[in-house]
User: Fold Histidine kinase domain-containing protein from Fluviispira sanaruensis.
Amino acid sequence: MELKEIAFLKERNLFHFQIAHEMRSPTVPLLSFIAAVEGLPEESRKLIRQAVHRIQDISYSILNNKQKKEETIEVMHYANEKHTVQLLSTLLQDIISKKRLVYKEFLGVEIYGEFGLSSYGLFAKIPLVEFKKVISQLIDNSVETIANHGKVKIRLSANSENIFMFITNNSFNKNTKTISKVILSDSSRLKISTRGSALCHAKSVVESIGGKFEFRVQFGAEASVKIILPKAEVPNWYAISIQIKPCSYIVIIDEDPSIHSLWQERFKNSSLHEYDIHLIHFSQPKDAISWNESLDAKVVFNKYYLCEMEFTNDSLNGCDFFSMIPFENNSYIVTNKFTDNKISKLYEQKKFKIIPKDSLFFIPIDILKPKEKPCAVLIEEDSLVKMVWHLSAQSKNKKIVLYRNLDKFIQDSEMFDCHTPIYIDMTYLNKKNQNKLVVKIYRYGFKHLYLITGHNPKDYTAANWIKGIVSNQPPWLM
Assistant:
């Protein structure tokens, strides 16, 4: 093959690969619409879902063909396969797309994932190749039990310790009852059918990674597989939420107008105007760089960047962009290109986080409301001292907060700015375990701690982390 032809094929494959990624982007708001809209008839919902899934499947087919050419997966027994931490929603979506392509001629069968807020950010440590095989076989089993028309649905949820995966179908045959009984017995003796063998293999794999496997049949309704997996720690590169401070710019950089519209929708109910937060939209990194350079340096605003990874009409990518602007931990790459370990490690080194574009509609967004910063917080048991402080503050038009004990303040400590002066009755230090609570307040970030006393403050020496020992008179009277 001539060099020109090789170059042409390489360019064509790159073009196809780019198209595949661009096709996935508009499906994000469409799937979000299906999940959010109320009152839509089920038939209409199904029609839209199938159309969106078809676009996803075409994209997946192109991407999968490229991966097959570039990667060689070594097949090994799952007991010897290295366990890696995987984002389950993305993993399952890829498997579902593959299965829809396999069963595209089964017109009466719908295979889909139901992923929402409850499935966001769920990671498990698994043998990747073998786990994919298990899920694939379980979907095959579900499809085989459907006579003419039916659905195979995969969904995720979790509690504080475990992830729950459900694979259900609303149609099954008479052999399902037998398999349901068999799966609970010794898997080494189960050779009754291909389907039963696959279920036993799935049970074995799931239990080998510390999980549980359940198979249930509700006659006249559905058959269901339930997989319980231990939660893995969320990788540092993954964005669990977006937390926005007041007085901020949120800068969105993406070529796809539908993604901008979706971000606009996500922030619609966040009271941005009330907290002086502004959405800024750009389609290219170079425009965002120019905007950033034009800002008045005297105007102190927090900046949060939500940037796509790759751009068609700009030589800069998301990583290039973040290397050219000053940023702290307020920067996010919004992309589905994060399954490659090399790429995710690069993100972690650069100290910005990833938001999967497929999950954009579900990432929690929190507006960090301003914390209280009163003139002083007084923690004092003596009601007379508290009365003096209260009346004095009223006369001087000063805001103070009074507490009777340390425990109550610690419960409310999140409410206060860490620069708030805290005045603590010195007698607390003579009580059992109270000294530890004062240290705890310091470790919470409150560095302006004062001990107050009715005696001469000069008779005492403060620890080096205490700002000072002062009179129990209000500080603005001294």
Notes: The radius of gyration is 29 Å. The domain at 376-477 is CATH 3.40.50.2300 (Rossmann fold).
